[in-house]
Specification:
Chain A is of the alpha/beta class. Chain A has helices at 25-40, 61-67, 81-94, 126-129, 136-150, 154-169, 182-187, 215-220, 250-261, 280-288, 297-300, 319-323, 329-339; strands spanning 7-14, 49-53, 74-78, 99-107, 190-193, 195-196, 205-213, 226-235, 271-274, 354-360, 366-373. Chain B is an all-beta fold. Chain B contains no helices and five strands. Classes of the chains: A alpha/beta, B mainly beta.
């Protein structure tokens, strides 16, 4: 978005991930917030903007707000990381807020959230009457259609889970750290065929918090600020009725704005993060954002191209799929760590000056693309 | 319009009517469940769900029944299946021949 004040990420925080029994979702969000404030060298008094993402097991703005003694200028409850970032970038960009804290925490692993509902909005129990459960239904239908339209194979899809499992193996924060081979991938049982267990992100407990600031707020922060170089966003609530429903066409509008209004092009991106509740999401993002031709992503990702050390590493943290189910928050956190050169294991470090994160919500109704870089204040 | 809706998403009118359709359609895509999120579906695993586009242009989320090896683009025809708790739902079975999947 043009004509806005620049914004920076000045602090990030992560609680332990995976199974963290004995803590509510709000505990984990606040755990992360404390670390993020410490990282940003600021206090609650500095936050004039606050957004809390609703979650399974927590995420009430009123309850968290009270627990952290928040007295911001603007506060809101949001339902996605996309909405939280959009708010922060608009609030800082317009000058209404100088420093915004956004946070999310859940204990859905410990409390066994099973994601029964599909993401289709069909009214009442219409989907359930057909046995259409889980948001994975959309991704399975989409990949099956890709197999028909472009000759994609199940083995080709395996490249996504394999790349992300290799990255997760190097990430101490990751929940699933076993690297996966193609034959292991193909032996994994189907859940919703053609998708297998490892094509689904597995729920986890955890919390993340991000502190963003304008130039003045960032200048106060001693830690290294990561600049939001450009961002673009759009929403579409059309589902089956869209003629190209199989390929998440709403992303094209975000991509058109991103590349059309900025001076960036896909080749400038050194490292990409895609919100990947399901592995086919990575293919949709690669194509819609123009990293490869439409209908070719399943071939394009072969040969380790999206692995660390490949031409375009994707989700170098293991992603939502293998690192932790933190609905996009884990990717912002890792983009910042990579740009700051603060990644524990050197094998996981990606040579990067320009990093892009793509965010979505449930059924990809909302999309947001942010380009982050190392340009200082 | 389909799936069932309370209003038209273009003009927002809630003044809706039923119209008769042919019951024939084309498989846009399908997926097969190997896990039951609800115990009612455990006995019929694996089962296949689909998006079917009726010849009149409406798209439905539905089940494919009696279709051993389904294909995208396959022609299907409506059948009606009872569900526990009363009511029937439209499902689709094989008609033969490949249509033009859009």
């Amino acid at each position: 978005v043009e004509s806005l004040r620049p914004a920076y990420i000045v602090g990030v925080g992560a609680s332990p991930q995976g199974k963290v029994p004995g803590h509510s979702g709000d505990d984990l969000a606040i755990w992360a917030l404390r670390l993020a404030l410490e990282d940003a060298k600021c206090t609650m008094a500095d936050l004039d903007g606050l957004a809390v993402q609703q979650s399974f097991g927590g995420g009430s703005l009123a309850e968290i707000g009270h627990r952290i003694g928040a007295e911001p200028r603007v506060s809101l409850n949001v339902t996605s990381h996309t909405e939280a970032l959009n708010f922060a970038l608009m609030a800082i960009g317009s000058g209404i807020c100088e420093t915004v804290g956004i946070l999310y925490g859940t204990n859905q692993k410990t409390n066994r959230n099973s994601f029964v509902a599909s993401t289709y909005h069909t009214g009442g129990n219409y989907s359930a009457a057909y046995g259409i459960f889980s948001p994975g239904a959309t991704a399975a239908l989409n990949y099956r259609r890709r197999m028909h339209d472009f000759g994609a194979t199940e083995a080709q899809l395996g490249s996504v889970a394999i790349a992300q499992s290799k990255a997760a193996a190097l990430n101490p924060l990751a929940v699933y750290r076993q690297p996966l081979t193609l034959s292991q991938y193909l032996e994994t049982p189907y859940v919703i065929e053609p998708l297998r267990v490892v094509d689904f992100a597995m729920v986890s407990d955890g919390g993340f918090a991000i502190i963003l600031s304008g130039r003045d707020g960032a200048a106060r922060s001693v830690s290294e600020a990561v600049r939001v170089a450009f961002w673009a966003t759009s929403s579409s609530f059309l589902e089956l009725e869209h003629p190209d429903a199989m390929y998440h066409p709403s992303l094209k509008r975000t991509a058109a704005e991103l590349w059309g209004k900025s001076s960036y092009k896909p080749g400038d991106i050194d490292l990409l993060y895609v919100q990947d509740a399901f592995t086919p999401n990575v293919l949709a993002a690669l194509e819609n954002y123009g990293f490869c031709e439409f209908g070719t992503a399943h071939e394009w990702i072969s040969g380790g191209r999206i692995e660390i050390g490949g031409a375009l590493p994707v989700n170098a943290n293991g992603g939502q799929n293998r690192m932790t189910y933190m609905v996009g928050w884990q990717n912002t956190h890792d983009a910042v760590c990579q740009l700051r050169r603060k990644v524990e294991m050197k094998e996981r470090r990606v040579e990067c000056d320009t990093v892009m994160c793509t965010y979505t919500s449930g059924h990809w109704q909302e999309s947001l693309a942010v380009i982050y870089d190392r340009t200082g204040l | 319009m389909g799936p069932p809706a309370e209003n038209c998403s273009r003009c927002l009118s809630m003044d809706l009517d039923w119209i008769e359709v042919s019951g024939a359609g084309t498989v846009i895509s399908y997926a097969t469940y190997h896990k039951a999120w609800n115990s009612a579906f455990e006995l019929i695993l694996p089962y296949t769900i689909a998006i079917v586009e009726l010849d009149e242009g409406v798209r439905l989320l539905t089940d494919l029944v009696d279709v051993a090896a389904p294909e995208v683009g396959e022609r299907v025809r409506v059948a009606f299946e009872p569900r526990d708790g009363g009511g029937v739902v439209p499902v689709f079975s094989r008609l033969g021949g490949l249509g033009d999947p859009r």
